Amino acid sequence: GDLLGLDNLVANTAYLRAQCVDRDKMRKQWLTLALPKPRMSSALQASVGTKYESLCEEQPIGKKLFQQFVLASNPQYMVATEFLEELSRWRFAEDEAREKAKQSILAKFCKPESKSFLSYLTREAAERCKGLSDKNFDEMMLDQIREATRDFLRGKPFSEFLDSPFFYKYLQWKEYEKQKINDRYFYEFRTLGKGGFGEVCAVQVKHTGQMYACKKLDKRCLKKKRGEKMALLEKHILEKVNSLFIVNLAYAYDNKTHLCLVMDLMNGGDLRFHIYKLGERGIRMERVVHYMAQITTGILHLHSMDIVYRDMKPENVLLDAKGQCRMSDLGLAVELPKGKTVCQKAGTTGYMAPEILKKEYYRTSVDWWALGCSIYEMVAARLPFIDFREKVQNEEVTRRTLEDECKFEHKHFDAPSKDIISLFLKKKVAHRLGCSDDPRKHAFFKGINFHRLEAGLVEPPWVPKSNVVYAKNTDEFRDSSTVEDIDFEFKDEQFLKEFSTGAVSINWQKEMIDSGVFDELNNPQLNGHGCDTGWE
Ligand code: ADP
Ligand code: MG
Ligand code: MG
């Protein structure tokens, strides 16, 4: 009773307090940090990469160091990178800002008399560039000039970068990135959720203050339920996808008892919690549209990589501190190269498509069905074929799914939501929205600018309160079933080697930059070894 309530209060206070990082206190810690010497082990060599795209565009630290190199070396290189920056700003801008960006590009880079004229272009490309004007600001032409600019940077500038002290710095960071990760790397806070193989709790990286969620998979439980392969697949898919609308993986490691997946902390709670646990049941339509636009984009991203999600439901959609949502829980996802299908029964009762229930072969169609069920649930606080808290046998759910028409009795359905749900809930795959048409074009999404949404520029319609914990009380996660202490050892070396790969490059580098550690350690005044070349 009261004691449990007190436990919960203490856990919540610690968790909320951790999220207010004291920068000055952090900075004091950093004084003892130093970048390691690159040892050029085979693991490091394999992860360094040699491609311009990976080093100077995709990896945030590589990009920063390349930028610093450019700044220190040649004004012409500088013009090229500035042009790329301004071009991408123009692409995502709207209205007035877009017009302004356009005028700036024309004046700065396209006039031969300007000192920022793109003089590295071949004569042909230069002519095209000069031809650009207010009326003739052709997107295809700009793409060509952009590619010509990247070709230029990929050449001499990139090879000079590889010979510079900036690249040595990059190797030092890569060496640092390769460090072994264990429990001591984090502080641990309260449990946020519970899943089939263990719990998810909040953690904080000790030396950056960055908060994450750690999904812990109990090794014994995995072994007993034969879930090892699934865990590895979940990890592989999470580290491969890089989308604003899918939870990012930052670290993967294991300890004696658990496999740990450390991901973006989504402290706004899952959508199931928002539908059923907060005041009035259901979610306001404006929010439903925004979340579903983000999830549709996320699903399309997965499908473009030939991944079928198979576990679309509000419970697996999580909100971050700003109120943006992401899909999580890729434990049921499968990779199905073009033309390949499966007939395995997978998913959650109430969200499974007719083709799964009929044990037919299927591919991506099942995600669109489940998305239809999810939209329905967000509006009506019940599923299309199961009422709220109705106890019903799986056979009956299957029968209703295959035979019944979906009814819209709830007062909050409007014409576009009814229409899009009906189209996602077409029993025949060939007729279902998403399987042949682009769902983003549906009237339900008419208020959404998908370009801006994909660039993360659309403000969320609702922002979680920073002093509220959007999760069940901690005592509700108390273990009821204890796994009996079977004599057990988890010693599949190959498996653990594949799973426990430590930091995930891009996300780790983002953490270093966002927390300020990058600037701190990169400061030449403090770390006077910038020109120290040659390594052991
Ligand atoms: P399972 O695969 O066992 O269903 P999930 O990955 O869905 O496990 O996690 C279980 C629950 O933990 C989720 O429903 C959610 O409430 C919470 N949770 C999972 N991931 C996060 C996260 N990144 N941030 C915050 N809470 C999370
Ligand atoms: Mg789940
Ligand atoms: Mg799962």
Automatic annotation (TrEMBL):
Give EC number(s), comma-separated.
2.7.11.-
Q: Where is the AGC-kinase C-terminal domain?
A: 446-511
- Where, by residue number, does ATP bind? 215
Iron as a keyword of this entry, yes or no, is no
Instruction: Please give the superkingdom of this protein's source.
Output: Eukaryota
The residues annotated as the active site are 311
Q: Name one GO molecular function term.
A: rhodopsin kinase activity
Answer whether the UniProt record assigns the keyword Transferase to this protein.
Answer: yes
One GO term (biological process): regulation of signal transduction
Gene3D superfamilies associated with the record: Phosphorylase Kinase, domain 1 (3.30.200.20), Regulator of G-protein Signalling 4, domain 2 (1.10.167.10), Transferase(Phosphotransferase) domain 1 (1.10.510.10)
Give the RGS domain ranges.
58-171
Which Pfam family, giving just one, matches this sequence? Pkinase
Q: Which family does it belong to?
A: Belongs to the protein kinase superfamily. AGC Ser/Thr protein kinase family. GPRK subfamily.
Q: What is this protein called?
A: G protein-coupled receptor kinase
